[in-house]
TrEMBL record:
<keyword id="KW-1133">Transmembrane helix</keyword>
<protein>
    <submittedName>
        <fullName>DUF948 domain-containing protein</fullName>
    </submittedName>
</protein>
<keyword id="KW-0812">Transmembrane</keyword>
<feature type="coiled-coil region">
    <location>
        <begin position="27"/>
        <end position="61"/>
    </location>
</feature>
<dbReference type="InterPro" id="IPR009293">
    <property type="entry name" value="UPF0478"/>
</dbReference>
<feature type="transmembrane region" description="Helical">
    <location>
        <begin position="6"/>
        <end position="24"/>
    </location>
</feature>
<dbReference type="Pfam" id="PF06103">
    <property type="entry name" value="DUF948"/>
</dbReference>
<keyword id="KW-0175">Coiled coil</keyword>
<keyword id="KW-0472">Membrane</keyword>
């Protein structure tokens, strides 16, 4: 029986040794995997730093563009105000021309009879002058 105990102890010792060997291999494989994960995370961290730097530069450029656009927009407001003033001036000029045209039309209609008589007198004078010139 004692022999059986020794054999059982040897079997347990061999099984424990095999278990420890497989456990050591598993831990080494896990260590390699964790090292690969650590390397990947370092690379990812470097890429994230690059992305952060580029994003910061992009934001700075965007802010500069926004400031430039605001400045140019302010300058354009002055141009539009000037154009509005020009439009109002043209409108007033058109109104003045309309008033002058209306005044001329009214004067012409009031003096139409006088003008017509002046044309008749002018025609008569021309006829007399032509007859006088023809008779000489």
């Amino acid at each position: 029986m004692v022999n059986l105990l020794y054999i059982a102890a040897i079997i347990v010792a061999v099984a424990f040794a095999v278990l420890v060997i497989y456990l050591a291999r598993t831990l080494k494989a896990s260590q390699r995997t964790l090292n690969n994960v650590a390397d990947t995370l370092e690379g990812l961290e470097k890429q994230m730093q690059g992305i952060t730097t580029e994003t910061t530069e992009l934001l700075n450029k965007t802010n500069q563009l926004a400031d430039d656009i605001n400045e140019k927009s302010s300058k354009l407001n002055g141009v539009f105000d000037g154009a509005k003033g020009i439009g109002e001036t043209v409108k007033e000029f058109n109104q003045s021309l309309n008033r002058i045209s209306t005044s001329i039309t009214q004067s012409a209609s009031q003096n139409q009879d006088k003008a017509s008589q002046a044309v008749k007198w002018g025609a008569a004078m021309m006829d007399l002058w032509k007859k006088k010139k023809y008779n000489k």
